[in-house]
Write a structure and sequence with these properties.
Number of helices: 5
Distance between the termini: 30 Å
Oligomer: single chain
Order of helices and strands: HHHHH
Length: 122
């Protein structure tokens, strides 16, 4: 049977994993959704439809329904940051931070057997 990646991790690999899983998607997705798509939409539309459109595509790209629901407001937030600052770099940092925190949370649940792996709270 397949063992989830988080259960296989030794302590020494966690930090490089978190940095890779944080910055790689954060950089690539911000280039695509904010620097390319949102900028092109901003060239043709006002800020609100451009940010909402890029955020909708960002959310859909996450595929899993729970991630789509979470990714849309995050996309709006990142879109506003990119629009207000005129730069994707604050978005890359925020996106990477969210990815790192999200993965660190699940690694800690598995590694320290916190017991919140989907069981109903009673």
């Amino acid at each position: 049977s397949a063992v989830p990646l988080w259960e296989q991790m030794d302590g020494w690999i966690v930090l490089p994993y978190l940095l890779l899983i944080g910055f790689s998607p954060g950089f690539v997705e911000e280039i695509l959704f904010r620097a390319v798509i949102q900028r092109r939409l901003l060239a043709r539309h006002s800020a609100l439809p451009a940010i909402v459109g890029a955020s909708a595509l960002f959310a859909i790209a996450h595929l899993y329904p729970a991630q789509v629901v979470f990714a849309f407001p995050v996309g709006i937030w990142l879109g506003v940051i990119a629009w207000r600052t005129g730069s994707i770099w604050p978005c890359v940092a925020c996106h990477a931070g969210l990815n790192i925190l999200w993965n660190a949370y699940f690694i800690s649940i598995v590694q320290f057997d916190i017991g919140l792996r989907g069981e109903a709270l009673t």
